[in-house]
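User: Hi! I have a protein structure encoded as tokens and I'd like to know what sequence might fold into it. I'm fairly new to this, so please keep things simple.
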């Protein structure tokens, strides 16, 4: 179920982040643009959109250093947290240890990154909302990361 963020909420979040951080407003505008907002009107945001951005678009499509990608993830997370409510819960994907591992893996090898992105997508698709189920799926994702690392080491 998407969360609808009004134009007013979006502009308020941009203003607050602009007051708190030197580049906060610019980062927030870019973050919202990456998530599909065109600078006017409401934004319908789904957890899926954040996950696709986090686990595929950011690592695979951004021609930037690892540290720059981490900064983008932090900026998007800050923006979502500033928006509050359901949008704030979406920031967890951007701040997770698994996401950081995924970004590092894409830097090492795009084939490892693609494999881990697919694993993350499976994690997302299987998410049921139940805490025990989510923990089991997280363990599966971390296991996929470790297996990919082992394969990469063996292949060198």
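Assistant: Happy to help. Inverse folding works backwards from shape to sequence: for each of the 156 positions I chose a residue that suits the local structure. Here it is:
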């Amino acid at each position: 179920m998407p969360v609808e963020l009004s134009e007013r909420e979006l502009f308020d979040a941009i203003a607050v982040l602009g007051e708190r951080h030197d580049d906060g407003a610019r980062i927030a505008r870019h973050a919202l643009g990456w998530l599909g907002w065109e600078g006017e009107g409401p934004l319908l945001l789904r957890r899926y959109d954040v996950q696709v951005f986090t686990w595929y678009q950011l690592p695979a499509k951004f021609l930037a250093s690892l540290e720059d990608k981490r900064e983008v993830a932090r900026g998007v997370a800050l923006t979502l947290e500033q928006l509050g409510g359901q949008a704030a819960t979406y920031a967890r994907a951007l701040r997770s240890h698994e996401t950081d591992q995924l970004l590092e893996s894409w830097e090492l090898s795009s084939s490892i990154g693609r494999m881990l992105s697919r694993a993350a997508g499976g994690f997302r698709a299987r998410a049921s909302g139940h805490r025990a189920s989510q923990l089991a799926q997280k363990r599966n994702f971390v296991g996929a990361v470790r297996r990919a690392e082992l394969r990469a080491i063996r292949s060198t």
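A useful reference point when you look it over: The chain has two domains: 1-95, 96-156. Feel free to ask if any position seems puzzling.
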